[in-house]
């Protein structure tokens, strides 16, 4: 299993656990424990820590984009797995400017997480939301051109 894919699984598991504990547990302890317990084969043990830190740092804006992209489902009604898969996917799609994760890979990885850990229709919901955001991004800046860092919520959802 690819190291980045497995890292995303650990991040998803950690975000899920953190939400189940109503944010009362230290997220750094959760991610460190999960990396120690499940990520012994990871080549880059810092990647999941960086990813979870950045998802949480941008959570308000990510949640706003989710809400405006999935108006039929208030964010509070999106199940915990789908909500966190969307946060991870949107972060990689919109905010990660390292160039390591092409947009289509970010979408595909999120869909795979939804297939493996979400409900029966999670993957199609995640694919629909991320696909809509990606198409909107393409309308703002075609493939190969830089997207503003980070793009404004209004640019993505209008």
Contiguous runs where pLDDT drops below 50 for at least 5 residues: none
Radius of gyration: 15 Å
Tell me the distance between the termini.
37 Å
Report the sheet-strand fraction. under 5%
Determine the fraction of residues in helical runs and give it as a percent range. 55-70%
Give the topology string: H per helix, E per strand. Answer: HHHHHHHH
Could you give a short account of the major beta sheet? Answer: none
How large is the count of helical segments? 8
Oligomer description = single chain
Q: Could you tell me the number of beta strands?
A: 0
Instruction: Please state the overall shape, judged from the principal axes of the Cα atoms.
Output: globular
Structural class: mainly alpha
The overall pLDDT, averaged over residues, is 89
In a few lines, what is going on in this structure?
The chain is mainly α. It contains 8 helices and no strands.
Description:
The chain is built from 8 helices and no strands. The termini are far apart. It is mainly alpha-helical and 158 residues long. α1 crosses α2 (27-38), α1 crosses α3 (46-57) and α1 (3-20) packs across α5 (80-95). 34% of the residues are buried. The longest helix is centred in the last third of the chain and has 19 residues, at 122-140.
């Amino acid at each position: 299993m690819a190291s980045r894919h497995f890292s995303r699984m650990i991040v998803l598991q950690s975000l899920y656990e953190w939400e189940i504990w109503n944010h009362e547990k230290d997220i750094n302890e959760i991610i460190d424990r999960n990396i120690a317990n499940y990520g012994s084969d990871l080549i880059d043990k810092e990647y999941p820590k960086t990813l979870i830190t950045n998802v949480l740092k941008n959570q308000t804006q990510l949640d706003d984009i989710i809400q405006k992209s999935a108006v039929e489902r208030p964010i509070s009604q999106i199940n915990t797995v789908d909500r966190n898969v969307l946060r991870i996917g949107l972060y990689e799609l919109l905010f990660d400017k390292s160039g390591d994760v092409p947009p289509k890979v970010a979408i595909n990885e999120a869909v795979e997480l939804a297939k493996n850990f979400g409900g029966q229709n999670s993957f199609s919901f995640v694919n629909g939301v991320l696909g809509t955001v990606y198409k909107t991004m393409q309308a703002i800046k075609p493939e190969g051109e830089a997207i503003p860092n980070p793009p404004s919520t209004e640019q993505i959802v209008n």
